[in-house]
Amino acid sequence: MPFRLTWTVYGDQLVREEFSRFTAGVQDFRPVFEQLEADLQHSIIQSTFSSRGARIGTTWPALSTKYAEWKARNYPGRPLMVLTRRLERSLIAKTGDSIRVIGKKVFRFGTRVPYGIFHHMGTTRMPRRQFLGLTHDDKVAWGKIVHKYCVGLMGRLRYSR
User: Fold this and answer.
1) Closest by CA position to 84, among listed 69, 73, 71, 94
2) How many CA atoms lie within 13 A of 118 on its CB side?
3) Which helix (H) or strand (E) holds 131?
4) Cα three-residue angle 106-132-149, rounded to 5 degrees
5) What is the distance between the alpha carbons of residues 93 and 4, in angstroms, rounded to a whole number?
6) Cβ of 103: how many Cβ atoms within 10 Å?
7) Looking at residue 112, what DSSP letter applies?
8) How many CA atoms within 13 Å lie on the side-chain side of 68?
9) Closest CA to 149 of 26, 40, 44, 38
10) Beta bridge partners of 109
11) What are the extents of the domains in the chain?
12) CA distance linking residue 63 with residue 2, whole number of Å
C-alpha cells in the first residue's frame, strides 16, 4: 500500500501526495514526521508570521483603522496577527494549545487556540489571514525528505542481510 501524505487545514486539503515506489514496506514514518514538524515550526510558520503571510503567497490584509488604533494604544509595536502571541506560540513551540501527534503512520500538527480558525478562514467581519500553508518548494522538499528516508531504509536493509 502506498504512503499518502495529506495536508488538511481546517477542512481544506492543500496537499495530497502518494509515494508508492519506495514506501511500500515502510512501517514507521516517525523520523520523517519529526523532520516535517521541525520544518513547520522553525522555518515555515515563523517565516509566515514574520512575512505577514507573504511566504505562503497570502499577504495578510491590514487591520481596520479602528482596531489598528486600539491595538497601537493597548499593545504598541505588536505586529499583525500578534496580540498575546498565544496562536503563534502554539504553532512554533509545544504549549497546552499545541496539537502534536506523531505515530508510525500518523502526523497531526495544529493549534487548539479557538480563534485560530477565524483568522485562518476569515469571517464576515474579519478578512482571511492564512497562517498554515505550504509553497510548491515546501512540497518538493517534503517529498525529498520522504524519499531520502525510504531510500536510506532500503540501503540499511540491504546491508543488514
Assistant:
1) 71
2) 9
3) none
4) 40
5) 26
6) 11
7) -
8) 7
9) 26
10) 100
11) 3-59+67-160
12) 45
Give how far Cα 65 sits from Cα of 10, 29, 62, 69, 119, Å: 28, 47, 9, 6, 17
HSE-CB of 54 using CA atoms within 13 angstroms:
5
Render each residue's pLDDT in the chain as its tens digit; 161 residues: 556 667 777 666 666 666 666 666 778 889 999 999 999 998 899 999 999 999 999 899 999 999 999 999 999 999 999 999 999 999 999 999 999 999 998 888 999 999 999 999 999 999 999 998 888 898 889 888 888 888 887 665 554 44
Integer Cα distance of 158 and 152 in angstroms: 10
Residues forming a β-bridge with 15: 7
Query: Amino acid identity of 153?
Result: L
Cell of 116: 485560530
Alpha-carbon distances, residue 161 vs 38, 119, 156, 157 (angstroms): 33, 53, 9, 7
The residue written with cell numbers 514538524 in the block is: 37
Which is nearest to 133 in space by CA: 106, 105, 113, 110? 110
